[in-house]
Automatic annotation (TrEMBL):
<dbReference type="InterPro" id="IPR029058">
    <property type="entry name" value="AB_hydrolase_fold"/>
</dbReference>
<feature type="transmembrane region" description="Helical">
    <location>
        <begin position="312"/>
        <end position="333"/>
    </location>
</feature>
<feature type="transmembrane region" description="Helical">
    <location>
        <begin position="12"/>
        <end position="33"/>
    </location>
</feature>
<feature type="transmembrane region" description="Helical">
    <location>
        <begin position="85"/>
        <end position="103"/>
    </location>
</feature>
<feature type="transmembrane region" description="Helical">
    <location>
        <begin position="253"/>
        <end position="270"/>
    </location>
</feature>
<dbReference type="GO" id="GO:0016787">
    <property type="term" value="F:hydrolase activity"/>
</dbReference>
<feature type="domain" description="Acyltransferase 3">
    <location>
        <begin position="14"/>
        <end position="330"/>
    </location>
</feature>
<dbReference type="InterPro" id="IPR002656">
    <property type="entry name" value="Acyl_transf_3_dom"/>
</dbReference>
<feature type="transmembrane region" description="Helical">
    <location>
        <begin position="216"/>
        <end position="233"/>
    </location>
</feature>
<dbReference type="Pfam" id="PF06028">
    <property type="entry name" value="DUF915"/>
</dbReference>
<keyword id="KW-0378">Hydrolase</keyword>
<feature type="transmembrane region" description="Helical">
    <location>
        <begin position="131"/>
        <end position="152"/>
    </location>
</feature>
<feature type="transmembrane region" description="Helical">
    <location>
        <begin position="159"/>
        <end position="179"/>
    </location>
</feature>
<feature type="transmembrane region" description="Helical">
    <location>
        <begin position="48"/>
        <end position="64"/>
    </location>
</feature>
<keyword id="KW-0812">Transmembrane</keyword>
<feature type="transmembrane region" description="Helical">
    <location>
        <begin position="353"/>
        <end position="376"/>
    </location>
</feature>
<keyword id="KW-0472">Membrane</keyword>
Length: 648
């Protein structure tokens, strides 16, 4: 994405710029719809991944040059080709780590440890830096491809070696790096990239010599081929997956053949656009793919500020628009006289500043690296005490809430690398599933966050949505079990799910339920602005402090309608599910967490304890036991929750 597409200093090759433009749009779109549920977007997601990253590796090979193995040659390769990429990687990565710290409210321990992950690179990078695996892979591929071109004269031998490296990279999918599933810098993927880069290098030489009539014929055939692939995929007759970052590649032969065919089709389409003239917006995007690549994931977070923008199509728009605006601003700054004067001044005094600055920078880097290594080691020590598996844990928010409440619960687990946030599933206003991310199958305790865009539909609709989500995960990823976490109405929804579908042997089994502040037998009437005043949901807000009591077996003396809905199916609760009931007690005389009484939340025991594999309770006393604070940066709850779900 950061390759140069220049033929001379002043003349750019438009079709290459157009290709980069379409490639980066595909990158942003792919991340925005990231395995979105629904056949259309699911097909689009995989079809994009069949070609968009190989396209950039092929473009990266366009202007590679052979070197002599002397000081001048190594200086060109390392200083001219690799050094700028490495600086861009470290500089932009550092900026994004700091941005993520403040925007996502991450701890400083996590932020400093993330610098260690930036150095290690590869699949350890996620969220804002998730695409940075490409940069390190790209650097390694440039280095290896240049060496291959320079050391081996025969083109046939070059491709034979590159093909061997390609198949070796495919084989490394099932191999760990000294016990780690993540290779440093995603080095195994660079073995594949060498082939694509070498192919791009020679394709660029012959591409202008091919007759346009031949290109049109090829474009027609390749388009039909692409349509045929899509058709086969929709009929489940093609299982071609090319997820390079997670090293999930189905069929090495297909990965060798399909991407180059589709990339050449893109190049021909772009040359056709070049024949039609110059399109300034496409050229601008093509020239600034690096800025878009670095910052589009951070721009996605802007969409979470307002509910109506938190959709995949808005993510595409903002993921492109925000980095393009940044590129425009930077371009304007670079064109100012003051910037030029600064550049001239620094150029004149470069040696002087290097003598003073280099020792200082080196010392700071060594100190920072030591701190990062220490924190990274501490994180690894923490992880050793937890069981790492591919079993997903699904988090469900409460009434009128959102995934923000769930992110508070998962914050500690993700920061300490006990678990990994892999998916966000939206249930939209039309009850359709819209999905960001995908389950990688890695043993990293994957987390799935659920967001009901209509977050006031109530506990029954919540439960029905959870059922559809579980079915989707079963059909898409063949999961056989999962953990469930719910807060408030989300906790009630999981219990409702359990008694209606949890014991169904045809569905994935619920391994553990961790339920926080569930209003199983009523909610205190606090006169909330969004509290329903009519209909079935209004009956939930009828509980009062000191009104109810629990009998010796846990059965409440007063049974409200919402409890009765669960009570008549209590014997259907699954027998293989462990349950943790977390609740708060403000200790202010209300016998509640401010919204749900202790009697209401503890009435869960009577519903599930006879059937559940195990049942336990955990109380949080004082101000941190307040209903909403149970899921908001609450170390006590996080520690208990993480230990329950994943500790040995």
């Amino acid at each position: 994405m950061v390759s140069t597409v220049k033929q001379t200093k002043n003349t750019r090759i438009l079709w290459a710029d157009y290709a980069k433009c379409f490639g980066i749009i595909a990158v942003v779109a792919g991340h925005a719809i990231n395995d979105v549920a629904g056949q259309g977007l699911d097909i689009a997601y995989n079809a994009i991944y069949w070609w968009h990253m190989p396209l950039f590796f092929m473009i990266g090979g366009f202007f590679l040059k052979k070197i002599n193995f002397n000081i001048k040659g190594w200086r060109y390769l390392l200083g001219h080709k690799i050094k700028p990429l490495l600086i861009a990687y470290l500089l932009n990565g550092s900026i994004l780590i700091i941005l993520s710290h403040f925007f996502r409210q991450q701890s400083w321990d996590y932020t400093f440890a993330y610098f260690g992950r930036l150095i290690y690179g590869g699949s350890t990078l996620n969220n804002y830096l998730s695409v940075f695996w490409y940069m390190t892979t790209y650097m390694l591929a440039i280095f290896m491809t240049t060496i291959l071109l320079s050391a081996i004269k025969s083109i046939w031998w070059q491709f034979l070696i590159a093909g061997g490296l390609f198949m070796l990279g495919i084989a490394f999918q099932d191999i760990t790096f000294f016990g780690h599933t993540d290779f440093p810098w995603n080095a195994q993927i660079s073995l594949l990239a060498v082939f694509w880069m070498l192919l791009g290098h020679y394709l660029f030489k012959v591409f202008p010599k091919i007759k346009w009539s031949y290109k049109i014929t090829y474009a027609i055939v390749a388009s039909l081929f692409f349509i045929g692939l899509i058709y086969l995929y929709t009929q489940d007759k093609l299982n071609f997956v090319l997820w390079l970052k997670s090293s999930n590649i189905q069929s090495g032969f297909q990965a060798l053949i399909i991407p180059p065919i589709l990339c050449l089709l893109v190049f021909i389409i772009c040359e056709g656009l070049e024949h039609l003239g110059e399109f300034a917006p496409l050229i601008f995007i093509g020239k600034h793919t690096d800025t878009i690549m670095f910052y589009h994931r951070a721009a996605f977070d802007i969409t979470t500020l307002m509910v109506f923008t938190n959709n995949w199509y808005f993510r595409i728009i903002i993921g492109l628009a925000a980095p393009i605006l940044l590129a425009l601003i930077l371009q304007k700054i670079k064109g100012t006289p003051n910037y030029m004067k600064l550049q001239q001044y620094l150029s004149i005094h470069q040696q002087q500043y290097l003598k003073i600055g280099m020792p200082i920078v080196a010392s700071l880097m060594l100190i920072s690296l030591a701190g990062v290594v220490y924190l990274y080691h501490q994180t690894n020590q923490i992880v050793k005490h937890y069981t790492m598996s591919s079993t997903p844990t699904i988090y469900m928010h409460g009434w009128a809430s959102s995934i923000r409440s769930e992110q508070g619960l998962v914050k500690t687990a993700t920061e300490q690398q006990i678990a990994t946030e892999e998916m966000i599933i939206h249930v939209d206003h039309h009850n359709q599933l819209q999905i960001q991310g995908h389950l990688t199958g890695q043993k990293n305790n994957p987390i799935i966050l659920v967001q009901f865009d209509n977050n006031q539909v109530g506990e029954v609709r919540y439960a029905q949505g959870l059922y559809r989500i579980v079915k989707y995960l079963q059909q898409k990823y063949n999961i056989t079990e999962f953990n469930a976490v719910g807060h408030s109405m989300g906790a009630y929804a999981w219990v409702y799910y359990g008694i209606h579908w949890g014991a169904n042997p045809q569905l994935p089994q619920v391994n553990k339920m961790a339920l926080l502040a569930g209003p199983y037998n009523g909610i205190l009437n606090k006169g909330h602005r969004n509290q329903p005043t009519s209909g079935k949901l209004a009956k939930l807000w009828t509980d009062q402090s000191h009104q109810n009591q629990l009998q010796e077996d846990g059965r409440p003396k007063i049974i409200h309608d919402e409890y009765q809905a669960l009570l008549k199916y209590k014997n259907d609760f699954p027998t293989n599910t462990r349950v943790l009931n977390i609740y708060g007690n403000l200790k202010d005389g209300s016998q509640s967490d401010g919204l749900v009484t202790i009697q209401s939340v503890k009435s869960l025991r009577y519903l599930v304890s006879n059937n559940a594999k195990s049942y336990q309770e955990f109380v949080v006393n004082g101000n941190t036991g307040q209903h909403s604070r149970l899921h908001t940066d609450n170390p006590t709850v996080s520690h208990e929750l993480n230990n329950y779900l994943w500790h040995h």
